[in-house]
Amino acid sequence: MRGDFAEPAGCPSDLVIGREEAFGAARDQLTRGGSVLLHGPAGIGKSTVLRALAAEYARTARTVLRCSATESESHLPFLALADLLGLVLDEVADALPAAQRTALESALTGRGESTLQRDGLALRLAVLSAVRALAAAGPVLVVADDLQWLDPASAELLGFAARRLGDTPVRLLCAVRTEGPETEGAEYDRHLRASPPDTRPVRLGPLTRAQVSTLLDERGYGGLPRSTVRDIHRTSGGNPLFALELGRALAEGPTPPRPGEPLPVPTSLRALVLSRLEMLSDEARRTLLVASAGARPTPALLRAAGRENAEAETARAAELGLLATDPDGPVVRFAHPLISAALYAEAPPPERRAAHAALSTAASDPIERARHLALATTGTDPGVAARLAGAAALARDRGAPSVAASLGLLAARHTPAGSDPGPSERRLQAAEDAITAGEADLARDVAREVLTRAGAPGERVRAWMVVIEAAGQAIGEVDAVFPQALADAGDDPRLLALVHYQLAWRSLVVQGDFAQGRQEAAHAARLAARAGDRRAELLALAFQAQAETLMGHPDAPATIRRALQEPQDPRVACHHNGALSSRFRWLVMSDRLAEARTTATALLREVRRRGMVESEVHYLRFLAETELHSGHCGRALELARESLTLARDAGIGEGAGAMQAALAEAAGGDVRRALALAREAVRRAEEDGDAVYLSRTLAALGHAELVAGDAGAAVRALRRVRELEAGAGITDPARGRWQGDLAEALVRTGEPAEAQDVIEVARAHALRLGRESVLAVLDRAEAQVRAARGEYRSAVTRLASARERLAGLGYGLEEARAAFALAALHASRPGRAPVPASYDEAARLFRRCRALPWLRQVEAAVAAQAAGPVAARATVPDPLAGLAAMERRVAALVMEGATNREIAARLFVSVKTVEATLTRVYRKLGIRSRVDLVRVAAGRGPE
């Protein structure tokens, strides 16, 4: 093929979902002029990645040769060779010796009787000569998909040429199917030996659950419950083709499967596995059906379930590739989850029930026995329902709330109407378990179902609470629920306490009103105490304590003590909205980092034990924040990334996770990624109408912009933070710790007066609340304000003091930033020779913190300092070298003849700011007028 290689619809490189790492590795190899061999199982996405790479790199090639073999055509000799060279034969024919040309024409056209046995050497040399002739006119890209189906003759010829291309500008981009870890290495090694020596093999593995979810959304199968996406991911094994087929079957089905029911496996996928099942006896198929119904089937379990010949039958299934050997033990493991799903889906319902009935007595675990009993039973049965409810409680105690939710829904299905507890009660318990497990969409659906049936006020209010909890940070989207919940609650203090607790969250998240949220929480705590509902009282007190802590309210410590009084509810105590979480926040803001780390670590361990996914997301983030304050940037980055990955997988807390990850990336990772994550966090907060996190996400964005060197963008973001927090009544500067960043950015943009105002306001609150680390950071910022005014001695003294205090408090990264600012101040003082080792201490401290972005800034400053004397010897000294960036810009415009008003308009600042900046310029340069500035810049000195 010649000319442009059109990019296939739907597969540009930015849409190769979950393949960023593999795509990047292949792209790097192709950019260096090497070749790539993509490999992986069927349906894993090799062709998609291959097409995207080909579309990107075909633009740089003069000639693109393509072939895509199929199994049905693999017996036809030279077919792939004809695809590759058929269209260019006329162009290269004249460059070939007569014998080679005759052999190649015969092979490509089918005229004559050319074979590898008869014309072997001539054909091999002809293919090599043809490719070299094409490369002589410009780079050649060879794109070959499904190498495993290449006819043997074409494969041999292509391999012969590929191994002998040398430095010829020819790149091969190929894909080959490799099945299973047992045979994969040998399969692709064979194809690798037939590739150019510089070929890089790139394996495509299974997608994660979050990537499968994104893929389904992109292809129009979105909106599925996360529990269903989890089942799709498990059944597909992360294979994108299989996942899409399962998603399509669900979209086309009349009703989604209920908990415990299998996914509908479409015919297109069943055909992949069921043909091999036909080679098994009926008894062996029944044995595999029992295995597919079990959780972790073993030969012993299968025998206990009545499959007397389990070993021989599973051995036969392994010979056919249906089962694989489990390296971890005697578990009967299917070669792919789809085989198990297709086998189960194909079985008639009576056979499935028989398999579950056998396992209900054979399984040793009570949870498994109860689940199998439910799936073997039709209709309502109070005894079965009671066993399922007991199993759900056991799963809850074991820290498996997702299993508890599934069992609870099965219990509700088997509970007769009029029972106590009834079906609605069991559905609500299942919905609350689903909330704990992070399956908010399942919980919401169950609660909506209860609301269509339940008439009891208590059940209705509980259902409304689930709907509100499932909304997460987007609580504003369920505003219409609150009047209905209040109406259902009537004058019952227990129910009213639940509603007012959620109203407290609404005041905070939607309105950004901390004072109103505090009042609602206090009211909810009083109502709960009157009703004797200790759990609701503890949650309300914890919320009140958190609001007071963030507001800088003097009652915060006393409220925390009340929330920690006995008796405690263990699940509330470790919840991310519980009292211990509020105490953690207070410890961090009070500079007690060691205690905060111990508290968060213990809470993380407990919520993991209980399977509380949302709380785990939050505590990972809390720990990342603590490590970041302590200057352990590498550890903070690991924790923040783990929290964000879990948040994306569960679909909860993604905005907060992106915010903390942005801060961690800015400190110890990649600044560009920090900016992207911070912008994502801001977007999510704005879309959710989340007034609480909007200010915090903007603070993260402002910080990332500052680290990236864009002080103007940092100022714009952080000014918004200042406005939002003032409007919300947040006065504690330890909440977001953005004030120092804003002041520093303002100094860089030439606005020290506003910077000083920010510092003074924050310092008053920090002094009132005893926030020592905040005071030290403010001193560091004020030192830079003073340096901008030319007060160098005072600036040095304040910076040195700030660094010492931050070191004593354990804020390693802030200490390093103070050392960096001190070094920069020494290096920039006019009239003084810079100290060669002035940056060494800052570099040591940043290296100790693993603060890579900051360390790169130090290295850039050292390089600029080292280049300074050389440049001075080679050129006329720059009289403006001692000026700050904003001062240099203003001075340059003055030298162009611009007025103060024109300068203000061009730099998007006020005229007063220009005047103040010029005053500093005059003082630093020892001059008094614009005329003097022009003369100094010209090297003549002032008049």
Q: What's the arrangement of strands in the largest beta sheet? A: 2-3-4-1-5
Low-pLDDT residue spans = 1-15, 869-877
| Major β-sheet annotation | 5 strands, parallel
Given the helix and strand composition, which structural class is it?
Answer: mainly alpha
Query: What portion of the residues fall into strands of 2 or more residues?
Result: under 5%
Count of DSSP helices?
A: 48
Mean pLDDT: 84
Shape: flat
User: Could you give the count of β-strands?
Assistant: 7
Distance N terminus to C terminus? 74 Å
- Radius of gyration using CA atoms only: 35 Å
Percent range for helical residues?
55-70%
Protein name: LuxR family transcriptional regulator
Organism: Streptomyces lancefieldiae
Pfam families: AAA_16, GerE
InterPro entries: AAA+_ATPase, AAA_16, P-loop_NTPase, Sig_transdc_resp-reg_C-effctor, TPR-like_helical_dom_sf, Tscrpt_reg_LuxR_C, WH-like_DNA-bd_sf
Characterization of this structure:
With 943 residues, this protein is mostly helical. It contains 48 helices and seven strands. It has a five-stranded parallel sheet, with helices on both faces. Strands 6-7 form a two-stranded antiparallel ribbon. α27 runs parallel beside α30, α32 (613-629) runs antiparallel to α33 (633-650) and α40 packs antiparallel against α41 (792-809). The protein starts with 19 loop residues before the first helix and ends in a 6-residue tail after the last helix. The model is unreliable at 1-15 and 869-877 (pLDDT under 50).
